[in-house]
Design a protein that fits this description.
Distance between the termini: 41 Å
Number of helices: 3
Number of domains: 1
Helix content: 25-40%
Number of strands: 5
CATH superfamily: YlxR-like
Strand content: 25-35%
Radius of gyration: 14 Å
CATH architecture: 2-Layer Sandwich
Shape: globular
CATH class: Alpha Beta
Order of helices and strands: EEEEEHHH
Protein backbone atom coordinates (compact mmCIF):
# COMPACT_ATOMS: atom_id res chain seq x y z
CA UNK A 1 0.00 0.00 0.00
CA UNK A 2 1.43 3.38 -1.00
CA UNK A 3 0.82 6.44 1.09
CA UNK A 4 -0.62 9.47 -0.67
CA UNK A 5 1.35 12.64 -0.17
CA UNK A 6 -0.69 15.33 1.52
CA UNK A 7 -0.96 18.56 -0.46
CA UNK A 8 -0.62 21.61 1.83
CA UNK A 9 -3.56 23.99 1.68
CA UNK A 10 -3.74 27.62 2.70
CA UNK A 11 -6.54 30.17 2.92
CA UNK A 12 -6.75 33.28 0.75
CA UNK A 13 -7.14 36.30 3.05
CA UNK A 14 -9.59 38.02 0.70
CA UNK A 15 -12.03 35.31 -0.49
CA UNK A 16 -11.42 33.00 2.52
CA UNK A 17 -11.27 29.86 0.35
CA UNK A 18 -8.90 26.98 1.04
CA UNK A 19 -6.72 26.22 -1.99
CA UNK A 20 -3.51 24.28 -2.62
CA UNK A 21 -0.46 26.30 -1.63
CA UNK A 22 0.87 26.28 -5.20
CA UNK A 23 -2.20 28.17 -6.49
CA UNK A 24 -1.68 31.10 -4.12
CA UNK A 25 0.73 34.03 -3.84
CA UNK A 26 2.55 34.48 -0.53
CA UNK A 27 3.17 38.07 0.50
CA UNK A 28 5.63 38.60 3.35
CA UNK A 29 6.08 41.53 5.69
CA UNK A 30 9.74 41.16 6.65
CA UNK A 31 12.36 43.49 8.06
CA UNK A 32 13.27 44.42 4.45
CA UNK A 33 9.69 45.52 3.72
CA UNK A 34 6.79 43.91 1.90
CA UNK A 35 7.91 41.29 -0.64
CA UNK A 36 6.20 38.74 -2.87
CA UNK A 37 7.64 35.39 -1.82
CA UNK A 38 7.87 33.13 -4.87
CA UNK A 39 9.76 30.39 -3.02
CA UNK A 40 7.45 30.22 0.00
CA UNK A 41 10.38 30.12 2.42
CA UNK A 42 11.18 33.73 3.34
CA UNK A 43 11.15 34.73 7.00
CA UNK A 44 8.47 37.09 8.21
CA UNK A 45 4.73 37.27 8.52
CA UNK A 46 3.20 35.86 5.40
CA UNK A 47 -0.32 35.99 4.01
CA UNK A 48 -1.75 34.23 0.99
CA UNK A 49 -3.72 35.71 -1.91
CA UNK A 50 -5.35 33.99 -4.87
CA UNK A 51 -3.78 34.69 -8.23
CA UNK A 52 -7.18 35.82 -9.53
CA UNK A 53 -7.90 39.39 -10.55
CA UNK A 54 -10.81 39.81 -8.12
CA UNK A 55 -8.87 39.00 -4.94
CA UNK A 56 -5.82 41.07 -5.87
CA UNK A 57 -7.87 44.12 -6.84
CA UNK A 58 -9.87 43.87 -3.59
CA UNK A 59 -6.63 43.72 -1.60
CA UNK A 60 -5.18 46.76 -3.38
CA UNK A 61 -8.31 48.94 -3.26
CA UNK A 62 -9.87 48.34 0.12
CA UNK A 63 -8.66 49.21 3.59
CA UNK A 64 -9.68 45.81 4.90
CA UNK A 65 -6.39 44.18 3.90
CA UNK A 66 -4.35 46.76 5.83
CA UNK A 67 -6.56 46.47 8.92
CA UNK A 68 -6.55 42.69 8.83
CA UNK A 69 -2.82 42.14 8.25
CA UNK A 70 -1.09 45.26 9.55
CA UNK A 71 0.77 46.17 6.36
CA UNK A 72 0.03 47.79 3.01
CA UNK A 73 0.63 46.45 -0.50
CA UNK A 74 1.68 49.81 -1.97
CA UNK A 75 5.29 48.74 -2.59
CA UNK A 76 4.35 45.56 -4.47
CA UNK A 77 1.22 46.81 -6.26
CA UNK A 78 2.92 46.95 -9.67
CA UNK A 79 4.26 43.40 -9.33
CA UNK A 80 0.82 42.10 -8.33
CA UNK A 81 -0.83 43.77 -11.34
CA UNK A 82 1.75 42.17 -13.67
CA UNK A 83 1.00 38.74 -12.19
CA UNK A 84 -2.73 39.25 -12.79
CA UNK A 85 -2.13 40.17 -16.43
CA UNK A 86 -0.32 36.90 -17.11
Amino acid sequence: MTALKKIPERMCVMCRQMKPKTELLRIVNSSDGVVIDLTGKLNGRGVYLCKCKACISRALKGKGFVKQNGFSLDTVADQLEKIVEQ
